[in-house]
């Protein structure tokens, strides 16, 4: 297995790449469960915040697969790829949940997933710009 793409990455970037793999796995694992424990106090739509946080975390950690230089030179391309991968994973997650007993799929969940991805891309872009100064 050729891991040369990790050669120019810092330890923190490698850590974030590993975290993205964990996020992919955890989201898939949790969406495979028939039910999930709910916090005692919730409000209507609180699950959308959980979706946005989960997929925002995924997008943010996944963004570290691209180097700082790539973000500085090709920011729009990095943003579009990170968003597209996260959005496609969100769609596949909703389709997957459709087949899990006790779960349902919703386009609104996917909108929340995409919102989290957009916010994460904005955060990553801001960090890149601050470091570039």
UniProtKB/TrEMBL annotation:
Coiled coil: none annotated. Pfam families: VanZ. Keywords: Membrane, Transmembrane, Transmembrane helix. It comes from the Bacteria. Residues 46-123 form the VanZ-like domain. InterPro entries: VanZ-like (IPR006976). The chain crosses the membrane at residues 49-66, 78-95, 107-127. This is VanZ family protein. It comes from Treponema pedis str. T A4.
